[in-house]
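User: Hey, quick favor. My workstation is busy. Could you predict this chain's structure for me?
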Amino acid sequence: MKARGKGEAGATVAPLPRFSGKDHYPPMKDTGLYEQILGLAAPWSVGEVAMNQEAKVIAVRLMLPPAVLGRIECLTMDMWQPYRASCRKWIDGAEEKTVLDRFHLERHLGEAVDKVRRQEHRELMAQGIELLKGAKFDWLYHPENLPPAREARFHEVRQYELKTVRAHAIKETFRHFWRYVYPANARRFFRDWYFWATHSRLAPIIDVARMFNRHLERILSFFRLGATNSIAEGLNNKIQTIKKKAYGFRNVQRFINAIYFHCGGLELYPL
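Assistant: No problem, here it is.
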C-alpha cells in the first residue's frame, strides 16, 4: 500500500500494518466528518478518513487488501459495535486479536460517577445542602492529578457517607485491574470488583460493570497483547491541532487533505 499523496515526488511505500487502532474526531458542524485511523507499524499514520459513522462499517475493507488484512496482529478499539462487526467480517481471528482500549473503559466509569454525582447533587440541593456544588471535576481527576487547591475540600467531602463517594471508590479501585501481569489474576480481581459494583445500588455503576462483564474476554486481551489505543488518540489530538492552527475549515475536503498531508505518513524529502 502506497503512502498517501496521489503520486507526489518522493512518496514511499508504507510498511505492512501489524497493528490497527480506531478513534473518531468530533464532527464538523453540518458535515458529519469523522476520521478513521489505521495505525501502521512504522511510522504510525492516518489510513483513511470516513465521512460519517456508517462509512466506518466498511472502512477496514476499503483501506487494506485481503492479503494485508491477514498480517494484522492486534486491533485496539472502543466498544462501537459496527466497527467490531466489520473487523470480524474482514479480518480472520479478529475477536482474538481485539483489545478494548483501557482509556475508553475508564471514561465509561468516569461518566457513571458523574451521573451519580449529578443525581445526588440535585437531591442535596433540594434540601439546601451545597456539599457537591462546584465539585464536578474533583471526582473525575485521578487522586494524583487533583489540583493542590482542591485537595483539602475534596478530602473533607469524602468523609461523608455519600453515593458519590462510593461510586468514586469503585472507579478508583478498578485502576488496580491494569497492574496485574497474568490474565488469571486479573480475572479474579475483576470477579470481586464486579460483585462490589453490581451490589452498590448505584444504577450507573451497575450498568457499566455489566457492560464490562459482557466484554470481559476482549478486556483481558490487554494482558496478552499489551496494546492500547494511545497512538490513535495521539493522532486525534494532532488532527485537532491542525484544525486549531487553521482557525477551522469551511471546506470539508480541504480539512481531509490537511489530515492526509500532516498525518498520512508522507516522505517528502528529495531522493
